[in-house]
Amino acid sequence: MTKLWASFVALIALLGAPATAQSISPTPDKVAVTIYRAPDRPAAEAIDRDWLQGYALITEQRRVRVPAGRSVLRFEGVAAGILPESAIVSGLPQGVREKNLDADLLSPRSLFARSFGRPVTIRREIAKKVVEVAGIIRSGPDGAAILQTRDGFEAVNCGPQTDSLIFPEVPVGLAAKPTLSVELDAPSAADVTVTLSYLAWGFDWQANYVATLRPGGQSADLIAWVTLASSDTTSFAQAETMVVAGKVKREDRAPYRGYEKEAFEFHCFGRPVYRSEGYAAAPLPVMAPMAMMESEAVGYDIVVTASRRVVQEDFGDLKLYRVPDRTTVAALAQKQVALLERPAVPVQLVYVAKVDADGDATTPRITLRWLNRKETGLGVPLPAGPVAVFQPRGGTSLLIGEGSIDDKAIGEEVEAQIADATQVTIESDNPDSGKGWEGYVLTATNANPYPVSFEAQFALEDQSRMSRLTGKLTRKDGKLLWRLEIPANASRPFGYRLADRD
Questions:
Q1: What does the longest C-alpha to C-alpha distance in the chain come to?
Q2: Which pLDDT does position 306 carry in this prediction?
Q3: Residue 222: is it exposed, middle or buried by C-beta count within 10 angstroms (0-12/13-18/19+)?
Q4: Is 262 helix (H, G, I), strand (E, B) or coil?
Q5: pTM for the whole thing?
Q6: Could you give the count of Cα atoms lying within 13 Å of 82 in the half-sphere of its Cβ?
Q7: pLDDT tens-digit profile of 47-76?
Q8: Do residues 141 and 8 make contact, with C-beta atoms less than 8 angstroms apart?
C-alpha cells in the first residue's frame, strides 16, 4: 500500500501581499511551560503518549513591531493544541479586536486537498528516466488521486512508474506553523513587548520512582524522576518549565488527537496500489516548510537529564515543581528530569490480604511502605506516579514488582502494592455456624525461609458483629487489621464468629 507522506517538491511561488498590514512574530523570545497532569488518569496508569490528555499553560514574551492603524499580528509557532479562547494578549497599544487560530496546517494531505482544481506537475521516473507532465487535480485526498492531463484523466501511482507531485504554490490559508493571529488598531507605530498566555492540550507528566532494597529488606535507596511528555508538533526551546501536582477541576477534556488522521494513502480506483519488487518506491523529496512533519515520522524522543533536581514550591492547595534549569519541551518527545535521590530510606515489606464481609480473602499482595518524614530521610511532598522495586541478587538487582503511589504530603505513610505473593498465602474456612452467626477461620502460611510481616484487612465497619476472636485486632484509618509476624515455613490461624446482619 503506497503512502505519499513525502511526495512534494519545494517550488513555492511568492504569494501576493495582503490588503491588511501584517506583523509576524516567528518565535517567542522567552517562554514558560507549566504542565498539568491528565485529570482522569490514575497514578497506576502509564502515560499514553499516543493520546496525552493533560494540558499546559504556556506563557510567551515576544518583541514585535506594530504598525500604525489597523493591522494583523501573527504569532507563529504557538502550540498546535492551543485553546484559542483561552489566549490572553497583553502589552499591545490598544488591546485586541479579534483573535483567530490559523488551524489548517500545511501537510501532504491538506496541501493536496486544498489544491483541488489547481495545476500541478506530475514527475515520473520510468526506467531511471524522469518525465514531467502538467496536470490538474480532480479528486480529493481519499481514494484514487485523479489528475487531468492533455491525454485525458489518469490516476497517480497506478502504473509501474514512481510518481510524485510538484506544487507551484501553497494555497492561501495553509500555514507551515500553528499560528494565532490578532487584529488590532494602533494610534502610532511602536516596538512593544507582548505577553501571550494560553492553554493547550496534548501534554502530561508524572513522577517515576525506583526503590532498590538493601540487604535485609529494612531500607531502600529511593530515586525519583519527573517525566514530561508532549504530543504537540511545536517545540518550546529553553523554556522555564514547571509541573503542577494535584487535581485541578476542568469541565472540558482533551479531544482525541491521533496523528493517523493525517495518513495520506492513495488507492488505484478503489483498490490499494501494490508495487512489484522491481519498482520499489524511491525516497521522495520533502519541501522545507514541512520540516515540522519529520518528527511525526521519527516518533518520540526520550531524553534523560539529571544535572540538577526539580525544586518543590507551594502553590495553594496544589504543589508546584520547578525545573531549575531552562529545558526544551520538544515536539513529540518525552523527557525525564531528576526529582530526588535518598539513600537508605527505612521501609517495610508487608504481605497484605483483604477479607470481605463474607469471610473470603484475596491473594496477599507484596506491599512496600515507608513514612514520608524528615527523620526517615524524606519529608518532601511526593507527587503521584509508578514505583518499580528492585532487590539485589548476586552482583545485580532484579525487579520484584511494580506499583504506584498517590500524591503524598509530608508526614503521610506511603504505600505501593507491587506484586501478588506466591510464597505467602491465606485460606478462609467456614467450619461451623449457629443461630444468627457464622464461624470463620483464616489461616496465613509463609513458605519463605525467613519470617514475614502479614496483615489482613477486614471490610467490616462494625466490629460489634465480631466475637470469639482467637487473636488481636487493631484499627488503622478506619480499618480493622489482623497483624502478625509469621515465622519461616510456618502457618498461623485466626478464628472469629460473625453475627448475621439484621
A1: 98
A2: 53
A3: buried
A4: helix
A5: 0.74
A6: 28
A7: 988 889 899 999 999 999 998 888 888 899
A8: no
